[in-house]
Amino acid sequence: MRPTDACPCGSGAPLGRCCLPLHRGESPAGTAEQLMRSRYSAYAVGDLDYVWRTWHPRTRPDSLTATDGLTWIGLEIVDTVDGQPGDETGVVEFRAQYRQGLRTGVLHERSRFAVRARRWFYLDGDIFD
């Protein structure tokens, strides 16, 4: 993707003015939702290093690997609870649409976030069927 392309997070802004500065470490996410959106965008553009760096050290896996043939095609934020500047925790519920081969699907998750060292991190989440 180019910086002028629409950001995969669905904000309507170009990637270069939306999630890309976060991926590059030029600025931290200001809210739990912004971190959620930037993590989704990182999955969509294949930046698993950013996904790993923004996963809380207490709960993150040792490494991440891409799923062959999986393409993320849309994000819908369903609900947010807290997660604003000044909060210590937040929750973001989302639905992320994907395509894998000829099959499409939706990942529906309620994710928990926490502030550590003045930065938002993904903790974990509950996945809905």
Brief descriptors of the model:
129 residues, alpha+beta, four-stranded antiparallel beta sheet
Give the topology, please.
Elements: H1 20-23, H2 32-45, H3 48-53, E1 70-82, E2 89-100, E3 103-116, E4 119-128
Antiparallel strand pairs: 1-2, 2-3, 3-4
Descriptive overview:
It is a single chain. The chain is an alpha+beta fold and 129 residues long. It has one domain (15-128): Nuclear Transport Factor 2, Chain: A. The chain has three helices and four strands, in the order H-H-H-E-E-E-E. The protein has helices at residues 20-23, 32-45, 48-53, and strands spanning 70-82, 89-100, 103-116, 119-128. The chain has a four-stranded antiparallel beta sheet, with helices on one face. A hairpin with a 2-residue loop joins strand 3 (103-116) and strand 4 (119-128). The protein is globular. The N and C termini lie far apart (31 Å). The model has no long low-confidence stretch (mean pLDDT 96).
- Using the 3D structure, state the CATH architecture: Roll
Walk across the major sheet and give the strand order.
1-2-3-4
Estimate the mean pLDDT confidence: 96
- Over the alpha carbons, how many angstroms does the gyration radius reach? 14 Å
Strand content: 35-45%
Structural category is alpha+beta
What is the name of the CATH class?
Alpha Beta
* Number of continuous helical runs: 3
The topology string of helices and strands comes to HHHEEEE
The global form is globular
Low-confidence stretches: none
Question: How many domains in all?
Answer: 1
Largest sheet: 4 strands, antiparallel
By DSSP, the count of extended strands is 4
Helix fraction, binned, reads: 10-25%
Q: Cα distance, first to last residue?
A: 31 Å
User: What is the CATH topology descriptor?
Assistant: Nuclear Transport Factor 2, Chain: A
Protein name: UPF0225 protein Y900_018375
Organism: Mycolicibacterium aromaticivorans JS19b1 = JCM 16368
Family: Belongs to the UPF0225 family.
InterPro entries: NTF2-like_dom_sf (IPR032710), SEC_C_motif (IPR004027), YchJ-like (IPR023006), YchJ-like_M (IPR048469)
